[in-house]
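pls design
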């Protein structure tokens, strides 16, 4: 199991369009102070969490209402020894419909249990995807970083 990428599966009583729109509103669920754009394929943006985390991402796939993929171009995770553990990893959002529900499968390809940052980073994703993005999708209001 130590080779399995971190993932979260969620289900919503919302349309694929609503889920896709929320995912691409990165300022609405991850960070209000995101630098750059995240709406179109080829866009690049920078996320910071204080002095603990920096990462630069490029939107590499954008299939409306189905799939979004980011490539982590560079990063620095300052609470571990190997600060570039996120470099060249991919963040994937897959949207599907089943039994009248919209499913969201989130995977951070390359974020595996063997990495030093796994505990902290998986905990962060659990909050940002499982709570903040979920809230944005369900209520229209996420809980992104504000600094």
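designed seq:
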């Amino acid at each position: 199991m130590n080779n399995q990428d971190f993932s979260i599966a969620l289900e919503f009583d919302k349309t694929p369009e609503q889920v896709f729109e929320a995912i691409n509103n990165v300022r609405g669920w991850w960070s209000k102070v995101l630098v750059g754009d995240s709406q179109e394929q080829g866009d690049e943006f920078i996320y910071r969490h204080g002095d603990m985390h920096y990462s630069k991402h490029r939107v590499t796939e954008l299939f409306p209402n189905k799939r979004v993929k980011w490539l982590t171009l560079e990063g620095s995770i300052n609470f571990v020894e190997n600060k570039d553990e996120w470099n060249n990893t991919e963040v994937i959002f897959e949207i599907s419909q089943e039994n009248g529900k919209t499913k969201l499968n989130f995977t951070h390809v390359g974020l595996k249990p063997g990495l030093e940052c796994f505990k902290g980073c998986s905990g962060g994703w659990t909050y940002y995807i499982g709570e903040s993005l979920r809230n944005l999708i369900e209520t229209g209001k996420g809980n992104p970083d504000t600094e």
